[in-house]
Amino acid sequence: MEEREKECLNVLKDVLGPYELSPIIVRTLRFFLRNPYESLVVINKDGFFEFLDRGSERFFNLPPGGAKGLKITDLIPESYLPKALETGSPFIGHIVKVKDLRRIGSTYPLIKDGEIIGAIGRVIFHSLDELERINREMGRLKNEVMILREEQRSQHTAIYTFDNILGISSAIREAIELAKKVAMTDADVLIIGESGTGKELFAQAIHNFTKPEKPFVRVNSSAIPFDLVESELFGYEKGAFTGANYSGKPGKFEIANNGTFFLDEISSLPLSIQAKLLRVLQEREVERLGSSKVKKINFRLIASTNTDLKPLIKEGKFREDFYYRIAKAIIYIPSLRERKEDIPIYINHFLKIINERFSTNFKRLTNEALFCFMNYDWPGNVRELINVLEQAALKTWHGEEIQKTSLPQELIGESNSVKNVSPSKIFKKEIQEEEKKLIINALNQTKGNKRKASFILGIPRSTLYKKLKDLEITF
Fold this sequence. Notes:
By secondary structure, this protein is of the alpha/beta class. It has helices at about 1-15, 25-35, 55-60, 70-75, 80-85, 130-155, 170-185, 200-210, 230-235, 250-255, 270-285, 310-315, 320-325, 345-360, 365-375, 380-395, 410-415, 425-445, 450-455, 460-470; strands at about 40-45, 50, 90-100, 100-110, 115-125, 190, 215-220, 235, 250, 260-265, 285, 295, 300-305, 330, 365, 400. It has 3 domains: about 35-130, 2-Layer Sandwich (Beta-Lactamase), CATH 3.30.450; about 160-335, Rossmann fold, CATH 3.40.50.300; about 335-470, Helicase, Ruva Protein, domain 3, CATH 1.10.8.
């Protein structure tokens, strides 16, 4: 007994090394042998039990020490322990059948002086349900990672093309044609247009015309806090400032390399940042905050503004040299009040989208409601038109027509302000003129092809022929 105790002490000393056999270590060893969460089996080289934890004894209906003298295969015929004795190799994470239950365990050979003297077996999971739970959790985490990666990718992807820009008015068609010509070059672009006219739509279309697979990075100048503008645009090295990401962060310009950098609402940029951007545009290189290294980059800049920049230059709020650097090509997007012949096209298009979103079935506006749309100035442009349609659809909800009474008061009030002529007569004349313009523009665009023109107008060909006759249009 004394020799065995000495051997145990020598083993403990060898295992613990410089650590002492403290009460916590004793408790740890005790826990390891009696762990209620994992089973522990020890067999000798002949396959007989040397140790079986108490929980497993109860599982097999054995008294304390009842496994002594039994072979492992007597209790667990499919045990991997005999394989560990035979091969001298561990088997980790295998599935073993125990009393008609499938469990996950691992087996390890015990080797002394190059000879296999026994083996240890542990059940890691007491049931496959635990493993399945972990697999489900891992699957959930993988999905979250994929979603985050997809979101990050989509943040730098343009989805709109020139086909998404609606309208047959000469004003919008001229803007589209100019944008297509500019897209074929590498020139930086300044897009000017009121709020809601579709400046980003044009920017994405220009990008997708030649570089759809490249990054499209959007930055709203007015949305970035002043003290973060530099770090967001140029990036930073680790430790560049308090709160900086430990590994550093690339700036928006770096992310846009070989693609398009869209700088929205450029009039909001501070003068100090304009000076630094001017250097980036001239040299096509950036320097991260906290770094002395310069990185060469290649990108197309598309800037947008809803403000006339020239008065800001005179007031000293916008750099003149920066303006001429970004305004190599200028695209002006006309407001909706400058191209009212496009309003019916927008109404037809967005009613279909609203029907899908709200599960409604609107096909048209009543004549009185359309009259209100045609006589309103639309300071918010297309964005406001969509908002008004959505409000009216929710207010009306049922039926195929949106009534005048469902429109906001500002539209109704403006149409009622027209005096001296009855609204019905005004409406009839206005609508006929607008219809005539729409049809003529569509026929010009399709070079007289009535089938294509009816498709653009969103009306049956028979209706188009009737309109041609009623409006006395010869083509």
